[in-house]
Design a protein that fits this description.
It is a single chain. The chain is elongated. The two termini are 36 Å apart. The longest helix is centred in the first third of the chain and has 13 residues, at 2-14. A two-stranded antiparallel sheet has the order 1-2. A hairpin with a 4-residue loop joins strand 1 (88-90) and strand 2. The protein contains 4 helices and 2 strands; from the N terminus they run ααααββ. By secondary structure, it is mainly alpha-helical. It folds into 2 domains: 1-48, Monooxygenase (Up-down Bundle); 57-97, no CATH class. This is Fusidic acid resistance protein. It comes from Staphylococcus haemolyticus.
Length: 98
C-alpha cells in the first residue's frame, strides 16, 4: 500500500515521466535494496531537483535584525540541491543561525 501511494505521489510530482525515471522507480520500490543501491537511484533524481534561492546578505540581516554585528558566512560551497535550509554556527557569540 505504501509503495503504491509513494509511486502515485512521485508520478503526480513529475507529471511526465521518461523511461529512465520509470525504471528507477520500479527498482526503488523493491524493499530489499541495500543503502548503496538506494543512494545510487536517488542520485539519478538529483538532476530534477530545483535548488532553492540563496538569500542575500541584506535579507539575512533583515531576518536577524535584533543581532547587531552578525557575521554572515560565504555560502558558495553549499549544495543547494541537497539542502533544505541554510544555517551556520557563529563561534564568537556561540550561536547557531538557521
Amino acid at each position: 500500500f505504501i509503495q503504491s501511494e509513494t509511486y502515485n505521489d512521485i508520478n503526480e510530482i513529475f507529471g511526465h515521466i521518461d523511461d529512465d525515471i520509470e525504471e528507477s522507480l520500479k527498482v526503488l520500490m523493491n524493499i530489499r535494496l541495500s543503502n548503496k543501491e538506494i543512494e545510487a537511484i536517488l542520485n539519478k533524481f538529483l538532476e530534477y531537483v530545483v535548488p532553492f534561492e540563496l538569500p542575500s546578505p541584506q535579507k539575512l540581516q533583515k531576518v536577524f535584525k535584533k543581532v547587531k554585528k552578525i557575521k554572515i558566512p560565504q555560502f558558495e560551497e553549499y549544495d543547494l540541491k541537497v539542502s533544505s535550509f541554510v544555517g551556520w554556527n557563529e563561534l564568537a557569540s556561540n550561536r547557531k543561525y538557521i
